[in-house]
Amino acid sequence: MKMSDIAEHKLRKGLSIWQVVGLSVALMAPSMAANINPQGAASAAGRAVPLAFLFAAIGVLFVAYVFVRLTQYFNHSGSVFGFVGATLGPRAGVIAGWSLMGTYISYALVTCVASSIFASSLLQSLGIWKNPPVWAPFALGAVELSIIWFMAIRPAKNATHFLLSVEGTTVALILLISVIVLVKLVGGHGPQGQHFTLSVFTLAKGTSSSSLFLGVVFGFLSFAGFEASATLGEEANEPRRDIPRAILGTAIFGGIYFVFVTSIESMGFGTSTKEVAAFVSSGSLLGDLGTTYVASWIGNLITLGTVISAFGCALASTVGASRLMYAINRDGVGIGPLTKISAKYETPTSSTTVVVGIVAVVAALSAVAFGAKPFDEFSWFGTIGTLIILVVYLLATLGTVYLLFISGKVKIPQWEIILPLVAIGILGYTIYRNVVPYPTGVFAWMPIAAGAWILIALVAVIAAPAVAKRAGERLTMEEGLLPIASAYDLADSVEPTHGNEPAQ
Fold first, then answer.
1. 3-class DSSP state of 412
2. Which end of the chain is less congested by CB atoms within 10 angstroms, N or C?
């Protein structure tokens, strides 16, 4: 395989650090996550939702270490496809890349549905569409998905600028309302006697530590997507500097933001059994708080912000999935049309169109064949995507351990091995708590669906070894995919297209 062959397929460089940050922040969707995930944590951990999110934030920082280290040495549009492939081998890389692509496709569906659900509620609240039918979110979702496709085939520079702007505005509004609620709580002016209390960082009597860690799972899910900027490794101006900073910065921001906001939400609703029950049943935590503590119109404003946040997350998920589909086919599977780069936009338009098409077909099939309502699809595919991404994180962490502490190709302080080992423990336990005790009803199919998606890649790399071989050859030649030590070992046979020095 010639280097000139690789040069035919290039993505456009030009993304600044803020545009790189935009993708991670938008896919993490902090404003949407703060309105949905805390209810799940409260159903398990009771009033201790902020404590659960604090534990989750600590865990995410250990996982962020993994991605920071990997992106200091590698930059690739396939994210973990490249990282895992270059550390654990091309077969593992294909499995990781395929799996992460499945997660991003799932999240594109989930967040597009979420955005349309909130949009339907907003239109009803404003009196624009009174008593919308159950299919209304599907109709609105179809319109949103068309807009997502239109934006995603444009240069990522434009999309990430939009994502960062809308998410930043929404988060700023949430923080403003949180501060207002905090001031009233400190002053003892809660509408039903709610007040400032640190008891939200302690377990209520009768709540076990096991229940707390069930809540931690929902906290962990809120961070999913913080690593999305890794898919822009070939489009960032300074990938080895900007992408590690974007990943770590997003993780740190998410930790501070989620712990603060969930603290206000928990104290704002109150800590009694009845008040925690109201917290769990809330359809929009921040919308309800805004209405109760500020003014009735603030609920609609928060709902609008959530619509935009979810839309931004759907767009970011689509961008991430399309880059993974493009990279997997360019570097291994070899489906020619999916490696096509638009001459006008210099983006993978074919892969983007396929990703959007998959989302549309799966959403329609779920509704028609299985009778899924909009919120059903949100729950189903959110669970499936999260179970898959936990496996992806685990593979990336194992690859980091091999690269940094076993291969001998990179020299770093040996004590740092503690960090990825802790990450492995956290990921393993999180996966365990998602399947034990095994879910019942329709959710019993979620682990099966997630496992089936991963199994497809596993069977493929075993049944078609030539695919893995091609992936290995491309991974050794692609820009930035050689650890610093091996770059010189292969200098006689392969000339890297970029230097392999990690960012300082």
1. coil
2. C
d(CA 240, CA 242): 6
Radius of gyration of the chain, Cα coordinates, nearest whole angstrom: 22
pLDDT digits (tens, 9 = 90+) for 164-203: 677 788 788 899 999 999 999 999 989 988 999 999 999 9
Residue 385's Cβ-side half-sphere holds a number of Cα atoms within 13 Å equal to 26
- What pLDDT was estimated at residue 62? 94
Pick from 356, 315, 313: nearest CA to 27:
313
**How open is the CA angle 102-145-166, to the nearest 5 degrees?**
95
Span 308-325, pLDDT tens digits: 888 888 988 898 899 889
Cis peptide before 447 (omega within 30 of 0): no
Domain boundaries, the chain: 3-489
Q: What is the CATH number of domain 3-489?
A: 1.20.1740.10
Q: Of 19, 474, 444, which is closest to residue 235 (Cα–Cα)?
A: 19
**497 within 8 A of 3, measured Cβ to Cβ:** yes
Is the Cβ–Cβ distance between 75 and 240 less than 8 Å?
yes
pTM value? 0.81
